[in-house]
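User: Hi! I'm working on a homework problem where we have to compare a predicted structure to a textbook description. Could you give me the structure for the chain below?
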Amino acid sequence: MKYPGLIFRGALIAALAYFSYLLLLISLQYVPFSKDVAFLKIKATEVLLPYYLPCFKAHIFTSFFLLLAGFTQFSPFVRKKYRRVHRLMGWFYCTILLLFSAPSGLVLGFHANGGVLSQFTFLLLGFLWIYTTIQSLRYAFKKEWIKHKQFMIRSYALTLSAITLRLWKYIIVVLFHPPPMDVYRIVAWLGWVLNILIAEWIIFSFSTSVSEDILETKIT
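Assistant: Happy to help. Predicted structure tokens:
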């Protein structure tokens, strides 16, 4: 029973590493920064706004680091053997997310392609991202480690939408070839709603084992 679990965990780590690498490549398209590259080519009106490009830069250049920092929070090895690293990376994750990634994401969401439906879902995603992260911090301060981890699972599930949105976009285009704006409206919802449902399933299914693991760790 031990080996399937190790194989599954290894596969998850490999998948996260690969898709994080792809996200890094997407971000590096804008280095040195240009308004005439990739996504910004279809945002000719928005790039003229004085606040749009700073928010765009803040969002895309922090996403990769959030993925890496957040992943360290769920490593039992790091949490038990390197508690200081766990805390420092947790602070890094929450600080970058709350000061840069999420606020800038709200601005970008307000100007999202696909009309009101897309704009609404990205704004909802942004507010839930902020809420789950603040709740995770709040329970850490109160030393309620079970709830702390549950909200961090939710927060990181929303962070992973940076990957799953693009993955679903690729799958839908390859299989169904819908019009571009229809694709954007679909993945705007599918990119994070499924993630949060999976997070809730994980929390519900493994609540007992998660509780025992956190209590055993006795983070101080």
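For your comparison, note the following. The CA atoms of residues 13 and 71 lie 9 Å apart. The two ends are 32 Å apart (CA to CA). Good luck with the assignment!
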